[in-house]
Amino acid sequence: MSQDIHKAVVLVSGGLDSATTLAIAKSKGYTCYAISFDYGQRHRVELESARQVAENIGVVEHKIIHLNLDSIGGSALTDTKIEVPISGPSNEIPITYVPARNTIFLSLALGWAEVLGANDLFIGVNAVDYSGYPDCRPEFIAAFEELANLATKAGVEGKTFQIHTPLIQLTKAQIIQEGLRLGLDYSQTLSCYQPSETGKACRVCEACRLRADGFRALGITDP
After folding, report:
1. What are 31's strand-pairing partners?
2. What is the pLDDT of residues 138-153, one digit of tens each?
3. Side by side, which strands form the sheet with 162-164?
4. By Cβ atoms counted within 10 A, which residue in 31, 32, 150, 195 is the most buried?
5. 67, 216 Cβ separation under 8 angstroms
6. 46-57 tens-digit pLDDT
7. 7-218 belongs to which homologous superfamily?
8. Helix-, strand-, coil-residue percentages of the chain, each rounded to 5
């Protein structure tokens, strides 16, 4: 298992944030391996966006992992009996939170990184313009990075893993601005929690509103 500090595993959902994160990783000179998850989400049409983004930005391999988080439920994104809220943000963690999702996703990405001999993982979590999910906070990322270096053969052997979160302190407008600077085509991305079968965004869920606010703040039209 060869070690290459220029390899990176990048989590790509097909949304605006993860696409920007992949573009950033690529711009920094990393050889990128994209990983996406078909986890029973009601918006799995986003995976087609993930394929397009990964292909156009240029990755060595794009792996799609199949999970059944819908068998656990507990989220409007994995249980179609729970409606996706269209009201504004509240002080409570929203029902669109998927229990332990980023912990599971990062664990699988970490496993692949270890197999590839990659030290670096990129994830597009954000703690500014976001829905208040606990697994998007800097404290979670720091804790997972520590776990990664304790729980792996590579970590024990001194090959330190680093979890990169280039968007974590950016507003949505700043994220979009960075993506445009890197030439990212946002028409290929999908940020909606409840799109149509053809990938048409609902424009009323929180993910759609956050995205729209970002483009509006820049005075440009969302493609």
Report:
1. 7
2. 999 999 999 999 999 9
3. 61-66, 31-38, 7-11, 120-122, 162-164
4. 32
5. no
6. 999 999 999 999
7. HUPs (3.40.50.620)
8. 40, 10, 50
